[in-house]
Amino acid sequence: MKNQIIAFLKDEDGQTSTEYILLVAVVALIVFKFKAQATERLGAITDNVFNGADGWVNELNSSN
Fold first, then answer.
1. Of 5, 6, 45, 64, which has the fewest Cβ atoms less than 10 A away?
2. 29-61 residue pLDDT tens
3. Residue 26, SS3 per DSSP
4. How would you label 13-49 residue by residue, b for 16+ Cβ within 10 Å and e otherwise?
């Protein structure tokens, strides 16, 4: 029995569909868990970018 367990742990034939499903499930759980925080931070980043771009455009227009 011990040899079978060791052989099972050493077996590296490749990932099965079950392992891929588990990986997708874990990623989905992480996304759902942190969705609100990510949305808030990405919104703040895009707001800063667009506000900065608006400032540059206004500076260019006022200098002309």
1. 64
2. 999 999 999 999 999 999 999 999 988 988 888
3. helix
4. eeeeeeeeeeeeeeeeeeeeeeeeeeeeeeeeeeeee
Residue type for position 18: T
Question: Is the per-residue pLDDT at 64 higher than 70?
Answer: no
pTM for the whole thing?
A: 0.47
Domain ranges of the chain: 36-64
CB atoms within 10 A of CB 53: 10
Dist. CA 46–CA 53, nearest whole Å: 10
Structure tokens at 37: 């925080």
Residue 15: pLDDT above 80? Answer: no
**How far apart, in whole angstroms, are the C-alpha atoms of residue 9 and residue 25?**
23
